[in-house]
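Shape matters. Shown next:

___
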Amino acid sequence: MRSRTAIWSALLNSLSSVALASRPGTIGAPKGGGSCITPKVFIISMFEPEAAIWVFTAIPEGALHGKRGEINAATTITALTLSPVFNLTQTYFLIAGIAGINPEVATICSVTFARFAVQVALQFEFDAREIPTNFSTGYVPFGAVSPNEYPTILYGTEVFEVNNRLRQLAIEFAKTAALADSSAAQSYRAAYTGPASEPPTIVSCDVATSDVYYSGTLLSQAFANTTKLFTNGTGNYCSTAQEDNATLEALMRGAMNNLVDFSRIIVMRTASDFDRPFAGESPLVNLFYSDQGAFGPAVQNLYLAGVKVVQGVLKEWDTTFRKGVVPENYIGDIFGSLGGQPDFGYVLGTS
């Protein structure tokens, strides 16, 4: 196992070399002819606090601070997969970031693990003040003429599905963690009912990707419906993110070129805020002025739950994880780019 300094130095050198990829001969053997780093687990974070909790606590294997937003995530992960410094063909990727949370499914400070990542804002959009009277939302899938129709114009990044068997193993590892909470979070969640009012826990549910940081019941319900629609009723929207579909697209392209194994991806998000207000609170207050008390605990829980996953993989490497966890579900994108038949899509959605 390499030191933190060695891992970060190698990563920075690799990203610098990949940035020069347009020059002939710059992608090849590691600088100095050294051997590749072959991490068993690679942690992907999106902004400074998410990365810092690993750097200043412990890096069990490798870690990458990929920057916020879809474009930053896609370019950074593409650079990583093309790096001559790393051999990632047997690496498990733990996508670990904070997120908004759907109070109908879970509560703040919880830890979620997704099977589906859905790019919910990849649609036509009407301003909410101008939507047709018979529409439930201003979002309409591409190629459709109403919100509840499956898209017929596809970009390929609408939905990704990851290895559900691996997800279940990760959930079991994470359940052994004692999760962080705060008195402010406890007070804030008490204003909600249902799952939102319960203590934080480990939750199996799905993630929505959008560069737009949204708030409010109407948009959240609309994107919950989009998640159901795009996954043919299977997906259960609970967490909100800005990067996951972009990260997964980059990793999938790496898998198509035998650089990574798409069956070795875990998508973990911890809940830093509710995606909508409680009854009687405005979306404005919920987004800008509420003291939800969950940001700090959510960042802590990235490590507290995540390190249990990493430790589980390392401890059972020889018995379970070296050979890989064979998925029992479809994995990949809506086009079946990695082979197999997607269990979501236009034909299924309209049958």
Remarks:
- The longest strand covers residues 92-101.
- DSSP finds eleven helices and twelve strands in the chain.
- The radius of gyration is 20 Å.
